[in-house]
Amino acid sequence: MAVDLDAEREVDLARWRRALVALWWLPVAGLIAGAILGVVFSFRGGNNYKATALISLGQPTSPGGALVNGFGTNPRAVQQIVSSAAAQEQAANRADMRPSALRGHVSVSQVGTVTGAGAARATPLIALSVSGTRPSTTAPAPNALSNIVVQKTTAAYVGVKERTFQTTLTQVNQQIASVNKRLTIITRAERAAKNLDPLQQLVVVSQEDNAETRLGNLIAQQETLQQQLAFAKEVESAKVIEPARSVKASAHSRRTGLVVGALIGLIVGGIAAIIGYGRVGRLTT
Question: Is the pTM of this model over 0.90?
Fold first, then answer.
């Protein structure tokens, strides 16, 4: 004989309705108890804070101008660095917190994803976030981790280039100052040489031309070095674009806790009513 599944389903639904009507106080009690527990949990939850630092990994180049590919420009390397126990312990010490407070509360994401032909030359921009319950320690932690990332990525390689450019620029500046002093002396000699014979005047003018030519070359070299130094600092090297600030991320809403708790309590109470009605029915029979 064929079994009528629709008829059995109607019988079950009818029995559930009878159970909910007969033991109506169980869903109501669950509703009230769940609402109370939800509100109590929302009071115990407290506030959550989040702080995000923005880091540019930089795009170092070789002396010939070619891009240098290495772990320092790989966003995944940042995730491994900030997740390491050594980095988190160092950052926790700077933020005056326990290292265990950082485990599971550090996240790294890439801001925007460039595709196509420009993806190879795009400078990775990283958002490093830390969540916590204390605003006084939530911000210092990502700032400390950001400094660690900068130190361990492109800053080490580019730092050598910056020091080289700076040393050369200092020497060029000194040479420019020396040539300017020499030009001052030559200008005075030129004024005094008006009463001299033409040959001596020609010697003074020749020295002045040589000094001015050298000064022009030094100024051109100075401009090139200044541009290279600025490019190394602003483009090639990793740096913190925006330091982290603590912001209240979320708080356990009293209304949300009440609604969720009441819903869970209502469902549990309804299940208890159906089970209890079935047991009562079997006992009466």
Answer: no
